[in-house]
Amino acid sequence: MKLVLIRTTINGRRYDLEVRPNMTLLDLLRDELGLTGTKRGCEVGECGACTVLMNGQAVNSCLVLAPQIDCQEVLTVEGLADGEKLHSLQESFLDHDAVHCGFCTPGMLMSAKDLLDHTPDPSEHEVRTAISGNLCRCSGYQQIVDAIKDVEGEKRKT
Ligand code: FES
Ligand code: FES
User: Fold this and answer.
1) Cβ atoms within 10 A of the Cβ of 44, count?
2) pLDDT per position as a tens digit, 45-103
3) In the sheet that 51-54 helps form, which strands lie side by side, from edge to edge?
4) How far is ligand 2, taken at its centre, from the CA of residue 82, in Å?
5) In the list 43, 66, 67, 115, which could disulfide-bond 28, CB 3.0-4.6 Å?
6) Ligand 1 geometric centre to CA of 155 (Å)
7) Structural Rg of the chain based on CA atoms
8) Which domains, from first to last, does the chain contain?
9) Are 39 and 50 in contact (CB under 8 A)?
10) Is residue 41 lining ligand 1, measured as CB closer than 6 Å?
């Protein structure tokens, strides 16, 4: 199969890559680049475990083909922290015990980041809508919603 050359930026780092035209972004991240923070769940756009940001918008990376990120910017959960300093969303998830097995957590974090970047003062309804495509089998969602709301609260204080 003929490979496709793409130039892309992932977590602030430039990459020149040759990819199969039918490779998904999820497979590229996990299998080729070792960015395994992005989780592989259903692979059909149902669970949200594979959520990343593409040009600042949450997408299911299992539904994006690798050639589609040519000249685009991708942010994965590995790009959230600033070195040793966790992102405020990650801190809030820890503070609220919003992480149980953790499988859904990277996708939840990325959906939440998209929400807060575009809607700094979301209602609980908006938070729940933003993560409605992210399934969690463990926590019952309330801690996750509270964690996202409290990040917003911290921002309001500053
Ligand atoms: S693995 Fe992509 S939505 Fe489930
Ligand atoms: S913490 Fe286990 S699936 Fe959400």
Assistant:
1) 9
2) 999 999 999 999 999 999 999 999 999 999 999 999 999 999 999 999 999 999 999 99
3) 13-19, 4-10, 73-75, 51-54, 57-60
4) 24
5) 66
6) 30
7) 16
8) 4-79 (3.10.20.30), 88-157 (1.10.150.120)
9) yes
10) yes
The one-letter amino acid at 68: Q
pTM of the model: 0.95
* Backbone region of residue 102 per phi and psi (left: phi > 0; alpha: psi in -120 to 50; beta: other values): left
Q: Which of 155, 157, 69, 50 is nearest to 110 (CA)?
A: 50
Start-end of H helices in the chain: 25-27, 88-95, 105-118, 124-130, 142-157
Q: What is the bridge-based pairing of β-strands 51-54 and 4-10?
A: unpaired
Could you report the per-residue pLDDT of 118-142, keeping only the tens digit for each? 998 899 999 999 999 999 999 779 9
Sequence length of the chain is 158
